[in-house]
Amino acid sequence: MSYDKIEVPSSGSKITYDEETDELNVPDDPIVPIIYGDGIGSDVGPATQKVLDAAAEATGREFNWMRVYAGESAREKYDENLPQETVDAMSEYRVSIKGPLTTPVGAGFRSLNVALRKRLDLYANVRPTYFLEGIDEVSPVKRPQDMDMIMFRENTEDVYAGIEWEAGTEEVEEVRDFVEDEMGFDSTIHDGPVGIGIKPITEFGTKRLVREAIDYALENDDKNTVTLVHKGNIMKFTEGQFRDWGYEVAEEEYGDEVITEDTLWEERDGEQPEDAVVVNDRIADNMLQQMLTRTDEYDVLALPNLNGDYLSDSAGAQIGGLGIAPGANFGTGKVLAEPVHGSAPKYEGQDKVNPTAMILSGRLMLEYMGWDDAADLVRDAVEQAISAKTVTYDFHRQMEGGEKLATSEYAQVVVENIEDLA
Ligand code: NAD
């Protein structure tokens, strides 16, 4: 495919995907699209690139970065927020990484992050939260070392699907009439202006997400449970259905490898068979408190879109906050890594914020590519920087002693750690 304003690197090869075997073919010199992002993206994007370059080089490989544009950078080049060729390039090259993109609240354009995930059909937003040495100094909880969870957040539906109508419009009144008159919910909605949104949760969307979560647990020996997190007691036909379809996948598609919590207690007296994954469910509000009180009992969480948004930020706080919380969006043979945090506009261009979240998102991307040695190097090098207290302002202010570094200086320390560790 040829592009108008995207410069395809003159060297490097394309990552390809084999549908039949469901395998990604990753050359040693891949071309990888990158969006630096808005606000602090111009600081954390280049810092991440530098660290990932060092990890590739240390393991005998090389990234060929391809800048693509969304948000502010796209408005400058294309006069639009999300050019089609950005989506096309990310789809064609399969593995990419992005910084945060600003979304105006209330009015203005819809989230470009949500649009990208939907247009690329990246259906699982994957957010790991794990302890690194040194984090105990910045964590607000007593035992951050108990935290080792990975959340699989559904990415394409729920109230996030963008089906909503603004108060005062003809459309919203039509929907109100339909709901009240045709569907029998008379007098359920208060009189006067109303905004209405729709919450679709499908069998297709739920099952492919839950499969992804179960597969992950089966592939990783240290992950023994998958928890379906929902508000099915209140939203019975959406979140309750999410739970039921989740259990259906567990019961019908995995044989003895996966058992439900009910079976575990009713038939096995709580004794978990070796290598089997147990699927259970928790109501979201209860899960939020159990994340704090029984942190070490949970491994993999599968959640509808909105629950996943809330719970992953909260889990991130337990291991040091948004500056360190990584994420990636998985599709079929496609990945887009991105930090959990936003564009923090007040820190834009100050070379100040913590690039760790985007760097560790890059670690997830490396794992997806099968470059586990490079991924481990990134993790260890970040851990070394934090435990040596060579950190950015957000961590520094919560530590005793240590050295406060700019974004770029911190990235340099991580690069040097990679070189020493390799
Ligand atoms: P935010 O994550 O941008 O910032 C909230 C606060 O968290 C910051 O003020 C800062 O104190 C701290 N923080 C965030 N990232 C940090 C980092 N790397 N290092 C140190 N501290 C950091 O959230 P917000 O202010 O609610 O949102 C700002 C904009 O970002 C909005 O337009 C929002 O829509 C957008 N956003 C984008 C994404 C995304 O691109 N995936 C995610 C969340 C929010």
How is the topology of this model organized?
Blueprint: E1 16-18, E2 23-25, E3 31-35, H1 41-58, E4 64-67, H2 72-78, H3 84-93, E5 95-98, H4 112-119, E6 124-130, E7 148-154, E8 164-165, H5 170-182, E9 196-197, H6 203-219, E10 225-230, H7 239-253, E11 258-260, H8 261-268, E12 277-283, H9 284-293, E13 300-303, H10 305-318, E14 328-331, E15 334-337, H11 356-368, H12 372-387, E16 390-391, H13 393-396, E17 403-404, H14 407-421
Parallel strand pairs: 3-4, 3-5, 5-15, 7-13, 10-12, 10-13, 11-12, 16-17
Antiparallel strand pairs: 1-2, 6-7, 6-14, 8-9, 14-15
Helix pairs in contact: 1-11, 1-12, 1-14, 6-7, 9-10, 11-12, 12-14
Number of strands: 17
Judged by helices, strands and strand pairing, the structural class is alpha/beta
How much helix is in the residues?
25-40%
Question: What is the makeup of the main sheet?
Answer: 11 strands, mixed
Q: How much of the sequence is in beta strands? A: 15-25%
By DSSP (H or I, 4+ residues per run), the number of helices equals 14
Task: State the end-to-end CA separation.
Answer: 37 Å
Which compounds are bound in this model?
Answer: nicotinamide-adenine-dinucleotide
Quaternary state reads single chain
Q: What is the spatial order of strands in the main beta sheet?
A: 4-3-5-15-14-6-7-13-10-12-11
**How would the global form be characterised?**
globular
Radius of gyration (Å): 22 Å
Provide the low-confidence segments as ranges. none
**What do the pLDDT scores average to?**
94
